[in-house]
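[job 0412] stage=complex_fold ligand=zinc ion status=START
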Amino acid sequence: MSNPSSERLRIALQKSGRLADNSRELLQRCGLRISPNREGLVWTGENLPIDLMLVRDDDIPTLVADGHCDVGIVGQNIAREAACEARDAGDSTGYEELLPLDFGYCRLSLAKPREAAFSTLADLAGKRIATSYPASLQAHLRDNDVDADVVLLSGSVELAPRLGKADAICDLVSTGATLAANDLVEMLTILESRATLIRATRPLSDSSEALLTRLLKRMQGVLRGRESRYIMLHAPRDRLAEVHDLLPGAEAPTVLTLDGRPDRVAVHAVCNEQVFWETLEALKEVGASAILVLPVEKMLA
Ligand code: PRT
Ligand code: ZN
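[job 0412] stage=complex_fold status=DONE, emitting structure tokens
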């Protein structure tokens, strides 16, 4: 169902689960005030023409592709699985990935029982592999000319080898604790995944397109801000070059004179990378003092 006349941008988000809080928080950081409707599936943006649809993550690609929503936040694992399915069926996906986000990190990996004799992808030929990601797995097997039997399971994939349903599994891993608890070891990763913003490939109404462009810029600003730090310090004027070299990812620091201290200057810089304690210690070594590291809330290039 398409709704080209809709003046409100409809964004599909996971209702509850691993992506839910981060997705909502990201939109709030982009300036969206939400009026929560705890029981309802549609939450209303108060200060922007945006409606949030709170759904299961698996439904998000379809909701965006079929026109019920315009935009969504979903794991790349889900977005890519749906894309592989569409490709296998000879269809287009109906959505595209716009911006990888900084949460929901995990990987889709093949794993085998610790005691299993096989270890490489080629060894899986003729074996049964349990997964909830059949299209992604099939695509990977096909790309590598391995002919294995894909066993579709909707949950508890890690139990399949012990239950005799499969010889190996292909599942999401983040810390690896679930694999270890089930005596499984990771063989190889077929997809590195994180949350991503997706949008419908069909054109939206002019106002929704304009709002999506604004939202995208704001999201990029939030992400850049989150990985940046503002650093301020005092340094000996004659060691400025060394100080500059130590500042991670800083382009052109601002250098200010200090009243009554011709030998020292104040340096202010935005660092586009993490600032570790080791960096601060190295800065002290070259004579820096009064070092302050501040978070950056928003950044607009
Ligand atoms: O109800 P709904 O369908 O919306 O949620 P869900 O239960 O299907 O999904 P949810 O909330 O568990 O995950 C949502 C998304 O989070 C996934 O699609 C991934 O993009 C991302 N994500 C990040 C993960 C993990 N990390 C993760 N560790 N999704 C699942 N897991 C599971 C994995 O399946 C395995 O069972 O956690 C276990 C492994 O974790 P470790 O830490 O033991 O390795
Ligand atoms: Zn799900």
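The chain is about 25% helix and 35% strand.
[job 0412] exit 0
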